[in-house]
Design brief:
Blueprint lengths: L4 H4 L7 H25 L7 H19 L1 H8 L2 H22 L2 H9 L3 H7 L2 H15 L2 H9 L1 H23 L9 H24 L6 H5 L8 H13 L4 H16 L7 H5 L16
Helix pairs in contact: 2-3, 3-4, 3-5, 4-5, 5-10, 5-13, 6-7, 8-10, 8-11, 9-10, 11-13, 11-14
C-alpha cells in the first residue's frame, strides 16, 4: 500500500555512517582551513565565500542522503532517485572544488600518489571515467542491485561523488595550472553535457520501464513506471546538464573578455585560488 504524502515527509534517514561522514568531513575541512593552517603556516586563509560554498555542498549532501528524497528514490520513484544522483554527481563536486584551497590538495600531486592523481585528472581520462561510471550503474541488473543491497548502493553513491570531482577537476582544479584554457573548457564541458544528455534522452523517450523494483513498487502521486522513468530522464537531461551549461557561459565570458580582464571570482577575493588558465598563457597560483 502506498503511503500518504504526509507519511512520506516524515521519512528522514538517520543512517549513522552518513551522518558521521558529513560531520567528520565538515569538521576536518574547518579544522584544516582554520587552526591547522595557522599552526603549520600551510597557506593563505580561505575566504568566507569558500567556506559558504563548502557548507552549501554539505547541505546538498545531507538533502540527498538524509531527507525523504532518499526514501522515495529507494522505494517508489526513479525520478526521485535521479534528483539524488544529480545532486551527488553534478552539483556537489564543483562546489567542493571551489571551496578547497590549492595548498590542501597540492601534496596529492607531490607525493607517492602523484602519477595516479595526474593520470586520473587528465581531461580525457576524467571524462571517460565519469561517463563510464554513470552508464555502468544504469545498466538494469546493476541498478536493481543498488536498490536491494545497501552496500552496493553506498558504493554507487561514492563513485558518483569521486568521479564527479574528477570530471570537474580540469575546469575547477584548486591548482590553477591544472585548469584547461577557456576555449578548451567550453569544448570539454560541451562533451560532458552531451554524454549526460544522451542517457537522459534514452530514459525520456523509452516506452518501456527498465527497472523491476520500480515496476513492482506501489504507485504514488499518480506516476506510472513509464511516466516516472520519463521524468527521471528529463531530470538527467536538463538539471543534470545545468552546471555544465552555467560554466560554459562563464568560460565564454572570460574567454572573450580578454586576458587582461579575465580574473576568476575567487581570485578577486583571495590569493588562495589562482585564476583559471587563459588561452595560450599559464596562470600561476
Amino acid at each position: 500500500m502506498a503511503p500518504s504524502t504526509s507519511e512520506i515527509l516524515t521519512q528522514w534517514s538517520w543512517e549513522p555512517s552518513v551522518i558521521i561522514g558529513i560531520l567528520a568531513s565538515t569538521g576536518a575541512y574547518l579544522y584544516a582551513v582554520g587552526p591547522l593552517r595557522r599552526r603549520r603556516n600551510l597557506g593563505p586563509p580561505v575566504t568566507r565565500r569558500q567556506i559558504a560554498l563548502f557548507l552549501c555542498a554539505q547541505f546538498l549532501l545531507a538533502l540527498a542522503l538524509l531527507s525523504p528524497l532518499d526514501y522515495v528514490g529507494d522505494t517508489f520513484l526513479f525520478s526521485a532517485h535521479m534528483v539524488q544522483h544529480v545532486i551527488l554527481a553534478t552539483f556537489w563536486p564543483p562546489l567542493i572544488l571551489l571551496a578547497v584551497p590549492p595548498w590542501m590538495v597540492r601534496p596529492i600531486f607531490n607525493g607517492p600518489l602523484q602519477s595516479l592523481a595526474t593520470f586520473f585528472t587528465l581531461p580525457a581520462i576524467a571524462l571517460i571515467a565519469f561517463d563510464l561510471d554513470i552508464y555502468f550503474w544504469h545498466i538494469p541488473p546493476f541498478y536493481d542491485a543498488t536498490l536491494v543491497n545497501e552496500q552496493i548502493h553506498i558504493l554507487e553513491h561514492l563513485t558518483f561523488m569521486a568521479f564527479g570531482l574528477l570530471i570537474w577537476w580540469p575546469v575547477l582544479s584548486p591548482i590553477s595550472e591544472q585548469r584547461l584554457s577557456y576555449p578548451v573548457q567550453v569544448l570539454y564541458l560541451f562533451a560532458a553535457g552531451m554524454f549526460m544528455m544522451a542517457i537522459g534522452i534514452v530514459f525520456t523517450f523509452s516506452p518501456l520501464a527498465f527497472y523491476q523494483p520500480y515496476i513492482n513498487a506501489p504507485r504514488i502521486w499518480g506516476f506510472t513506471p513509464v511516466s516516472d522513468q520519463q521524468l527521471g530522464g528529463l531530470i538527467m537531461w536538463y538539471p543534470g546538464d545545468l552546471p555544465y551549461a552555467i560554466w560554459v557561459i562563464i568560460a565564454f565570458y572570460r574567454w572573450f573578455d580578454g586576458p587582461d580582464d579575465a580574473v576568476a571570482p575567487e581570485q578577486t577575493q583571495s590569493s588562495t585560488i589562482g585564476s583559471p588558465l587563459l588561452p595560450g598563457r599559464p596562470a600561476p597560483d
